[in-house]
Specification:
Number of strands: 6
Number of helices: 4
Radius of gyration: 14 Å
Structural class: alpha+beta
CATH architecture: 2-Layer Sandwich
Oligomer: single chain
CATH class: Alpha Beta
Mean pLDDT: 93
Length: 128
Amino acid sequence: MEDNVVIPAEERAIKCAAFALDKKALNVKVLDISRISSIADYLVLASGRSDKQVQAIADSVKMGLKPFDRTIDTEGLQEGRWVVMDYGDIIVHIFQEEVRAHYNLDELWERAPQLEIPEEFLWEHKER
């Protein structure tokens, strides 16, 4: 079995966001929940416009993070409406936009500090 390169959870969470953004994910956030929850240290939230895009985003995160970490569990990939990827210290939620609005995890975790995603990975507000 190959050994994973060990990098801190914060850096892996940012990588998850970058891999999601690589597939044109919308409204990507990395939240530090380490001080307010014991379920994980970081949450990554992202949206896609369709089941195919949500699945592509999840695949990008999984394949991109492979050299650094493996998921403990992934749920919802088949349907592509809300995919949850559990990396232990990082939980990635990838939603279709209307599902994200309905469950509103953004508001649920609004007390959590949001990490800055490096500009090089952002695409939504760049000039075309």
